[in-house]
Amino acid sequence: MTIPNDETIASKAHLLPLLRGAIAAVRGHRLEEAERLLDAILNQEADFADALHIKGHIAMLRGQLADAAALVQAAIDKDFHFEDYHETLGKIRLAQGDVAAAKQCFGAALTLNQASLGAYTGLAQALIAEGDYEQAVAALRNGKAVNDRDPELRYLLGFTQMARGKPKKAMVNFRIALALNPEDQRYRSAYARALRGLRLTRPDPELIDSVLPLLGAPGVEPRDLSAVVESALLLEPTIAGLKPLTTNSSAEIAVFLQSPASPDLSKLPLLMAWLRYGLVSERDLEALFTALRRGALALGLGDAAALQRHAIWLAALAVRNFHAEYLDIETEEEKHRVELLRHRIRKALAKIPAGGTAPVALLTLLGCYRPLYREDFATILPSLPWPESLQELKRIQLGEPLREITIAAELPSLTPIEDATSKNVRAMYEESPFPRWNQPVLGNDMPLARHLRAALPLQNIPEITIEKPRVLVAGCGTGLHAILAATSYRDADVLAIDLSRASLAYGKRKATELGIPGLRFGQADILKLGSLPDRFDVIESFGVIHHLREPAAGLAQLVMLLKPGGYMMLGLYSEIGRRDVVAARRLIAMHGYSDTPDDIRRFRTDLEKLDPELTERLRRSSAFHSLSDLRDLVFHRQEHRYFPQQLETLIGDAGLEFLGFEFTTPDTLAHYRKEYPDDPRAISFAHWAEVERQHPDLFSNCYRFWLRKPV
Ligand SMILES: C[S@@+](CC[C@H](N)C(=O)[O-])C[C@H]1O[C@@H](n2cnc3c(N)ncnc32)[C@H](O)[C@@H]1O
After folding, report:
1. Can you give the pTM of this predicted structure?
2. CB pairs under 8 A, 24+ apart, for 383-390?
């Protein structure tokens, strides 16, 4: 959106205050006020090009793209020589998925003004959508000559470099974009993704300074940062100096921790942040933390006062262990000592005078082994005073889970759960809510049609006039998916259901804390959903119906709930993508591991010997490093997997139209279109089967695809 052009200023000066007011209102996101002012102008001067243009801009923001295009085209018809109008029309055409028209508009803007930065970035976006990265880079270079400190331009440059397999170059651009606009979640996620797999071979404090703010920030997946953070930690002299401890006895480690020479690990900010928000996945670090925990336990039972000095980093370790759900192996000696520790804490609690503090050092130690909220003395702990430095531990291990227990009891039950597999799967997710997550990924708050067009750039998604779409998230797990949906579809009314009350309660607590509007949670079995009176414009179900005994039966229920013309997104396991999981499941069956926490821990350790190469590959998955994730990954009680042709049958039998797979970057679709020009919408299952044969990890997470119910 622009300020008025010079001709306007000369000829329509009397309307300028209204126009300026409208611009200020748009900038302040007061769209209705802006429209009122623009209508007042257009009532007096129906051909006022700037007013038409801004009105078009507002329609674009609202997702009313056909209206937006007509208004901006009218502005261009009035005043062809103003490049901003062409640029806005280009953006509208892009949102409509009409890449060729968008390119023309940006080209026209550039003919009028070669220094139009927005036209260069718009043109680059259009070229990226076509998969023409070379030309996109050329457009961005021209833009860079105009302004090399524009964050969006740097972001797009990085994006093209990632797509062309140049993460190091991309990293530089994402880092600049993020420095210019630290609040943009896209820049943060992109920078983290570019860092994935980067291992430091020597210290790089400057890089680490740019990584630290990413930890715990929304939109960042910890596994993207595992390599860079953990390699930096292993290079850290204090940590490297502790490595020999891993072969010492508990008593020796306790003596070391007791000595004043032992380091205070809470002084290492990267370590503290990684324990609180990260995902410990390096064997050496895992071994070190297991050893330190063992030594601290021995120390705590012998000299509790000496433990005090280590309480802050132990609290961070307790947070990490809670998030990983105590995945590390415990010796029999430790199990025995944990019982002694509990006994010691009970005795201390019984003797606390009025106004006295909790035995926090001992509790911190116990929190490294067991979740505090499950202890029989848990409910009295929150009311005792805790020092400021341990408040986070208190919140994570007591406040939040105790609140979830209350929420779980209050959740509405929307359907009965009677099917034997549903009961079995429910029991699993009550014990191990999935996924464990810290920071949400928030959506882009777009009108329904724009959201669908962004997800499905090759389909001709028609205009959709629904202002408040009704969305169902079927099998929402712990709410990450539901929160993403609620923040993606503008003004949506979202119902999120799941079998597991523990998972739903986790999601509801998080959604309440984050202040997510328009999101409700309820317990229900997909197999019984047809009995609900509600009907939905969109249904999303990712990673769920493959856990039903008969996925087709669940899909039929979802189809019943979808309005005619409604859209559905499914995520289903790929047989090829999960070949390592299949191999692990075979080993689990062969050696008779059960899905109890102890057996899951044992399997994780034994796998190193049973199949070192498989272990190596599975360790790369974030799911390998927390108990419920690992359970979900390889111990699931019920799962189906598919080849593309089987998806075709499932979808066809359900009477749905296939709208294609969704990818996070446009390169896969661009590559497909070059390879298979006979299928410009990229919906041939036979072709996709061939693509997957050539790229067996393409769908290693899941097939993620969209469907439409015929009208
Ligand atoms: C792998 S998790 C996926 C969670 C979420 N969609 C996500 O992507 O984060 C599978 C979830 O599906 C739920 N589920 C499985 N069968 C279900 C059923 N019959 N009805 C409702 N939910 C079900 C489980 O309880 C579990 O929370």
Report:
1. 0.88
2. 384/352, 384/356, 384/357, 384/358, 385/355, 385/357, 385/358, 386/357, 386/358, 386/360, 387/357, 387/360, 389/311, 389/312, 389/315, 390/311, 390/312, 390/315, 390/360, 390/364
